[in-house]
Amino acid sequence: MFGLLLRRYRCQRCGSVVVVGPRGLLRRRLYSAGAVALALALYGLAALPPAEVRRRVSPLRIVGVTAAAGWASLRRWSRAVCAGRLFPVVRQLPADATLRQVAARAATTLAAYAPSSGGLAVESAAFLGASM
């Protein structure tokens, strides 16, 4: 694990503070925007089980007994996309949409934001698009 130094700037007029960091960071998330988008693409488009998505995306190799069967973060990220909190550019799906459908919509939308995504797999394009 490592830490990042973020810059904070205070407005001289109103006193509000703006925090500036590297592109691709998600507020209050352990994973970057690219990693979350990749996980959503693998879950929603490639239809991989959550445990396999975790194995491919997470750098943490030791997990608890409960986490071995799935990945709670994947469900949380999908719900956050539904609520418009994680990636606001993703259009809302009907209320009866499954979390896998939400993940697929998020991945394809983020892939559309990738620069010159011609020839890239959708998973790679989603990773790049989320980081923009």
Mean pLDDT: 89
Query: Could you tell me the number of beta strands?
Result: 2
The SSE order reads EEHHHHH
The percentage of residues in β strands lies in: 5-15%
Taking Cα atoms only, what radius of gyration do you get, to the nearest Å? 16 Å
Low-confidence stretches: none
Shape summary? globular
Distance between the termini: 23 Å
- Write out the strand line-up for the largest beta sheet, numbering strands in chain order: 1-2
How much helical structure, as a percent, in the residues?
40-55%
Main β sheet profile: 2 strands, antiparallel
Structural class: mainly alpha
Q: How many DSSP H or I helices? A: 5
Describe this structure in words.
This protein is mainly alpha-helical. Helix content is 41%, strand content 6%. It has five helices and two strands; from the N terminus they run E-E-H-H-H-H-H. A hairpin with a 6-residue loop joins strand 1 and strand 2. The mean pLDDT is 89.
Secondary structure elements and their pairing?
Elements: E1 7-10, E2 17-20, H1 33-44, H2 50-57, H3 72-82, H4 99-112, H5 122-130
Helix pairs in contact: 1-2, 1-4, 1-5, 3-4, 4-5
